[in-house]
Amino acid sequence: MREKPSKENPAGGFKAVKAIGWFVEEFNCTQVSINFVDATKTSVITVYNFLKEAARSLGFEVTGSELIGLIPELQLLIAANQNPLSQGLNKIEQLNLGAEFLGLNAFELFDVNKRVKELQIKAASVNRS
To answer: Tens digit of pLDDT for each residue in 61-104?
Structure first.
């Protein structure tokens, strides 16, 4: 996944993405931790789809995602657009669909009002008024 070419990936990987993976024995699964240094360079859905395909090629599946911090609204909208059902939905519905598509509801309910950067900024400005 690293940006620079390596022996395993001569073409290089994703721009502005740092990642590490390890096996978690007590849960019998592998965890991949990813830091999107600049989400305008590589979308979350691009990396998620890559990991899903990599896992599938090894006989495994991605069971979910967890987000630490906030996510830019655009990243969830891009993910939602992977689903043709996103057309005609309002923005909150699209954000929820994007979160679902990325597996962000797998371990706990993902509340877009609390986890989307732009919605938090808007809420903070309303609370200051």
So the answer is: 999 999 999 999 999 999 999 999 899 999 999 999 999 999 99
CA atoms of 41 and 37, how far apart (whole Å): 9
pTM: 0.85
Secondary structure (3-state) at 40: coil
Query: Which residue(s) pair with 22 in the sheet?
Result: 31
Residue closest to 39 by CA, chosen among 81, 67, 74, 4: 74
Write the CB contacts of 115 (distance below 8 Å, at least 6 apart in sequence). Answer: 67, 70, 71, 99, 104
* Three-class SS state of 88: coil
Superfamily of chain region 17-128: Formiminotransferase, C-terminal subdomain (3.30.70.670)
Which residues have C-beta within 8 Å of that of residue 39, sequence separation ≥ 6? 16, 72, 74, 75
Say if CB 116 and CB 73 are below 8 A apart. yes
Share of the chain above pLDDT 90, in %: 65
Question: 107 in helix, strand or coil?
Answer: coil
